[in-house]
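Annotated sample (chain length 320).
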Amino acid sequence: MSKVSVVVPVYNVESYLRKCLDSLVNQTLKDIEIIIVNDGSTDRSKTIIDHYVKSYPNKVFAYDKENGGLSDARNYGIKKCHGEYIGFVDSDDYVNLDMFDKMYKKAISKDFDVVVCDVTLDYGHVTKVISSKVLNDIFDKEDLKKQMIDIYPTAWNKIYKKELLEKVTFKKGIWYEDVEFLYRLFPYINSIGTVKMPLINYVQREGTISKTYNKKIYDYIDNFNGIIDFYKKNGFYDEYFNELEYCYVRYLYMTFIKAAANLPKEEYKKACLKAKENVLEHFPDYKKNPYLRWGMKAFYLKHFNAFIQMLVYHFANRKD
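Output written by the structure step:
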C-alpha cells in the first residue's frame, strides 16, 4: 500500500501535461503512486503519458477509457488507488515538490480524515495566493459544520482517507462537480487538518470551465437541489439545516448570479428569476439563518432584489 495515491484525469492537455507530471514524479514523498486516467484524449497526451509510464514503472500507472468527463475519470481512478490517502490533481495544474510529503505527514500526525492546503492561482505573468479558509485543525463536529460554510470548495487542494471515498463519489455529467462532491462528503468527515501554505498551483487558462459561460451554469442549481435530496435521504438534513440553508442561498444569489451575469441580459434575468424561485421553494425563511447576522455578505443575501441583481450585471459587463 502506498502512502498517497494521486489521481490525474487527462483530456487533451498536451501543452500542460509534462509540467504537471514532472511535479508529481519528483515529489519528495517517495511512497506515492500516480494514477493517470486518459479520458479519451485525441491530442498527443497519450504519447506523453506513455513516456512517464515507461520512465517511472513503479510509480506511474496509466489507464485509457472512453471520454466520460472529469467526474467519470476521477471515479475510475479512485478504483485503481491503493494509497492510505487519495489526492486529485488536474492535468493542467502542477504542485510543489513537497506537497504530498507535507500533506501526508500532517494527515498521520493526528489521523485526520482530510487535510487541506492553500492554493496559488497562476496567471502566467503573476500569481495570487488563496487561503483554504481552514485556519485551524478541526475535530469537533460543530466546528466542522461551521467550516462547511467557508471552506475553499475544490477537490484538488486536499487529500482524503481512502475509505471516505468509498462513501461518496463524483457526480457525472455536471459542471462544478467539486462543490457537489465536497458538500455530500461533509457529514462523513470527523476531522480536518490544515497545512497553512500554498502547495498546489491552479493554472488560470482560457477555455477552462471556470472561464466559460453557457447554460451549464444552471448545474449550480441542480447540484444544490441534489445535495438537499441527498441530506434528506441519508438523515442528515435536520442536523445540517442551518449550514445547508446558508450555502444554498449564498451559491444561488452570489456564485450562480455572478456566473449568470456573463449571459445575455434577458437570459440573465431568467437566471435570477430561477434562483429566486428555488430559494423561495426550499428556504423561504432563510433571512432568519444564524449565519446571516452581520457583514456585507449577509446584507447582500438578505436584501437581494431586482435592483441589486441589475447592479451585479452592470458591474460584470462594464467596459473599463
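Annotation: Residues 208-212 have pLDDT under 50 and may be disordered.
Annotation: The chain is about 40% helix and 20% strand.
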